[in-house]
Design a protein that fits this description.
globular, binds NADP nicotinamide-adenine-dinucleotide phosphate
Length: 276
């Protein structure tokens, strides 16, 4: 019997590549995206390779849309073995320049969106007595950076949620895994929303943000391919007893290792000298 997978945010990047990776490796995959008009590139590959991959509309910030997609999968495939909470975007701006409305929207997608999909999937997996939930966090789920306080907060929240959920669902045979990618070569950076006030020259952070964004552009030159994230996900899904976290990318691995081994003061110095 084919394993059934549901992935959010498959119009591009990590979601797109993971949908293809799972479908090419025997998973009956439901690639979801909030705007079906963006499905063309995926549809072309599906046709060409005759993949067992269906595209469904699902906006993680819209309750009815989540419900509709899950009902569809339930009636077609009768089960859901894998959920990958991938949909997300970055909100850029120093905290003082962010409005609470911008921050709330960031949480609606990156955090509450993932929670809402997970909440509807758990009863299905619990009755099956099996399943795997993979939450796409980030290196920013363990380390804060200037200009992404809201984004990092959503990913820290995803980490705390996932770690707690792992214990809650273990008795029901459901695994919860966190993936922490470093900088990945996707549309993520061009899709980031820059907060309105950050773009005003009168912002006290205008120059700092400009400098940080130039550093981010440099980091993207050595970014990891989203195909590597998809490969990692496929591999992790084959583990009987997976770890709680998987880190991907030399950049993030190096920084996380330093955070583990240095004192807080040493780590802060290292970050300010080399990264920020
Ligand atoms: N790229 C990186 O360097 C990096 C590093 C660490 C973690 N991540 C995480 O990886 C995940 C995927 O990002 P990516 O790099 O693949 O970037 P991406 O190419 O921009 O993909 C993001 C996906 O999320 C979707 N999305 C946004 N809001 C949504 C909503 N309300 N409902 C459903 N889908 C929604 C986007 O759809 P639309 O096309 O409709 O906008 C798109 O399909 C994100 O959670 C991100 O935080 C990325």
């Amino acid at each position: 019997m084919h394993q059934v997978a549901l992935i959010t945010g498959c119009s591009s990047g990590i979601g797109y590549e993971t949908a293809l990776m799972l479908a090419r490796n025997g998973y009956h995959t439901f690639a979801t995206m909030r705007d079906a008009k963006k499905s063309n590139p995926l549809e072309l590959v599906i046709k060409k390779e005759k993949l067992s991959l269906s595209i469904l509309e699902l906006d993680v910030s819209d309750d009815a849309s989540i419900e509709k997609a899950i009902n569809h999968i339930q009636s077609e495939a009768k089960r859901i073995d894998v959920l990958i909470n991938n949909a997300g975007y970055g909100l850029i701006g120093f905290f003082e320049d962010l409005t609470l409305d911008e921050i709330r929207k960031q949480f609606e997608t990156n955090f509450f969106g993932a929670l809402n999909v997970t909440k509807k999937i758990i009863p299905i997996m619990r009755l099956q007595k099996s399943g795997t939930i993979i939450n796409i966090s980030s290196g920013a789920g363990q380390i804060g950076f200037p200009s992404i306080s809201a984004y990092a907060s959503t990913k820290f929240a995803i980490e705390g949620f996932s770690e707690s959920l792992m214990y809650e669902l273990f008795p029901f045979g459901i695994k919860v895994i966190i993936i922490e990618p470093g900088v990945i070569k996707t549309d993520f950076f061009s899709n980031c929303i820059v907060s309105k006030h950050s773009m005003e020259k009168s912002s006290p952070y205008f120059q700092s943000l400009d400098r940080i964004q130039k550093n981010m552009d440099l980091m993207q030159e050595h970014a990891t391919s989203p195909i590597d994230v998809a490969k990692l996900i496929l591999e992790v899904l084959s583990y009987k007893e997976p770890n709680q976290r998987y880190i991907l990318g030399n950049d993030v691995a190096m920084i996380l290792e330093a955070k583990k081994n240095l004192s807080d003061i040493e780590f802060k110095k290292m970050m300010m000298q080399n990264i920020i």
